[in-house]
Amino acid sequence: MQINSLRPSIFETSYRLFERDLHPELFEPAIVGHIKTSLYSMDFGICDGGHFLRFSSEGETMLEVTGPVGQELSMHGLQQREVFGGSEEISVESSEPFIYHFAGQVDTVDPAVFTRVEMELQIEAKRAFLSHQFPSSNRLFAGPLSLAKVEGTERSLTLHVFHTFPQDLAVLRTQTLFELPEWNS
Questions:
Q1: In sequence order, what are the beta bridge partners of 64?
Q2: Greatest CA separation found in the chain?
Q3: 129 alpha-carbon distance from chain centroid
Q4: Tell me: the pLDDT tens digits for 26-54?
Q5: Measured distance CA(125)–CA(118) in Å, rounded
Q6: Is a pLDDT exceeding 60 seen at residue 19?
Q7: Where are the alpha helices (DSSP H) in 60-183?
Q8: Local confidence band at 183 (pLDDT 50, 70, 90 cut-offs)
């Protein structure tokens, strides 16, 4: 049975990393969360195609975007671009302007497992830093769900993000880590 969705297929979803900020109008988030400490600030938005994550410290900014391959974004400042697929894993590391690590994994499963995972994520969404369930185009299936869990200290921030892709019976799991070295204060 074909499930149409507001969210693009996982096979049409990309990861992009920018060494600069992009105009907020380029994203249409359903929900946005903010964290600010004396050393950094973070903005995280859940969009129909994935998420954006903006991390800034001492005038330097990195922007992580997961979204549709066809989403037009600037090439200026683009450091990395990858397309998610099947059971592909993406890993990116950088040490400038601060330590950054990204890992993304796509899990495609059978319908019974997807339903169970989706139910578990709906429970987790109640305790998440940010979550949003998009409308379903089919009354028998839940709409795409996204949620973010955050762990942080004054010098580091870790985000665990989950996006469901009901039409593909897939879950995109990402983990992003930012660390500020001791000399960055």
A1: 17, 53
A2: 55
A3: 13
A4: 899 999 999 999 999 999 999 999 999 99
A5: 10
A6: yes
A7: 111-125
A8: low
* Residue where the block lists tokens 């994935």: 50
Q: How do residues 106-162 score in pLDDT, each as one tens digit?
A: 999 999 999 999 999 999 999 999 999 999 877 777 899 999 999 999 999 999 999
Strands in 99-108's sheet, in edge-to-edge order, are: 89-94, 99-108, 170-179, 156-165, 145-152, 130-133
42-50, Cβ contacts within 8 angstroms, sequence gap of 24 or more = 42/157, 42/178, 44/129, 44/130, 44/148, 44/159, 46/130, 46/131, 46/132, 46/146, 46/148, 48/6, 48/7, 48/134, 48/144, 49/7, 49/8, 49/13, 50/13, 50/146, 50/163, 50/172
Distance CA 165, CA 185 (A): 40
Cα–Cα distances (Å) from 74 to 12, 38, 121, 149, 163, in that order, read 18, 30, 33, 28, 24
DSSP strand pairing (78-83 vs 89-94): unpaired
Cis omega (within 30 of 0) for bond into 181? no
User: Could you please report the per-residue DSSP string of 64-92?
Assistant: EEEEETT----STTEEEEEE--TT-EEEE
What pTM value is reported for the model? Answer: 0.91
